[in-house]
Design brief:
single chain; alpha/beta; Rossmann fold; five-stranded mixed β-sheet; 5 helices; 5 strands; about 20% strand
């Protein structure tokens, strides 16, 4: 019997209040093709429109809730900056996803779970550890439930 395909969740984000140029659709298409190349089944898609400097976005919360529930194996993005623009927050997010058994892949950047993002290379030390701890304790469920996102 063959090995089950990994369950992939697609995450798209644009830094604009509306998608007049169809960039979200372009990201969805690119990620759908990428999932096919990786041999993964797409189980869900989340989208956000807004700044990558704010990690409190409804689509990202949906990703986190799905990971917490153990319903996905991989998160696919077109590039690391779609998750967030802060290296510290990106490192903390990637680490937390890994702690929940979810690998993070980017079309542009490859396996983020094994890259500099996962270890926070540009800001090592106390600051990264404190940021990670704060994110781990923060309630991030979009439905307001008491679940906590823990790395």
């Amino acid at each position: 019997m063959g090995k089950a395909k990994q369950r992939a969740w697609l995450y798209c984000r644009i830094d604009a209040p509306e998608d007049v140029l169809g960039r979200l659709k372009g990201q969805r298409s690119e990620l759908t093709a990428y999932a096919g190349q990786l041999g993964m089944d797409i189980i869900g898609i989340s989208e956000d429109m807004g700044s990558g400097l704010n990690m409190k976005r409804s689509g990202l919360h949906e990703v986190q809730a799905t990971a917490l529930a153990g319903r996905m194996d991989a998160l696919l993005v077109t590039q690391a900056s779609r998750i967030g623009r802060s290296v510290l927050e990106l490192a903390a997010f990637t680490k937390a996803m890994g702690n929940h058994g979810v690998a993070v892949y980017s079309v542009l950047d490859g396996d983020l779970s094994r890259s500099q993002w996962a270890v926070g290379w540009s800001r090592p030390g106390e600051e990264a550890a404190q940021k990670s701890a704060r994110l781990d304790q923060e309630e991030l469920s979009s439905d307001g439930s008491a679940q906590q996102w823990q790395g």
